[in-house]
């Protein structure tokens, strides 16, 4: 085999490896953020821990919509003080002021970043797509806790306040909802 063929084969191998890594990067980054809390990514848990500390932490709630999303979206309660390890429940409210059904999905994060891996959600509206009918208002719960391990983390132990932020984005209506929205008024089968 001459040198040109060897070089071409090595370059083709590099291209295959680079393409493989690019496809693996997104799921790997998502996994890394969930495990470490990097970038304010929260944890997901089945239940709150058995240990509840006497130490408290202030939780702030923030809600917004992306450009073009017609909903009104806000936290019902702006702040809450919880004991570390305690299961807490907060609510956000969404209202569809339009004359059409709208589907939405929420993205979320917490700040400061040092708290991300210690803020765990048990149940959240952000896990599923939400559909609001014209004029509909709903309150959506978030069940969460702050992991007691935060008090032993070299950065986390200094966190006194955590902000949980959600942003709702409009998404295409599910097929069933889209078909209902497309039917002319008064058309009853």
Automatic annotation (TrEMBL):
Major location (coarse): membrane
Membrane topology, from the record: Single-pass type II membrane protein
Keyword Ubl conjugation in annotation: no
Cellular component per GO, a single term: plasma membrane
Family of this protein: Belongs to the COX11/CtaG family.
Family matches, as HAMAP family: CtaG
PANTHER family: CYTOCHROME C OXIDASE ASSEMBLY PROTEIN COX11, MITOCHONDRIAL-RELATED (PTHR21320:SF3), CYTOCHROME C OXIDASE ASSEMBLY PROTEIN COX11-RELATED (PTHR21320)
Name of this protein: Cytochrome c oxidase assembly protein CtaG
Gene name per UniProt: ctaG
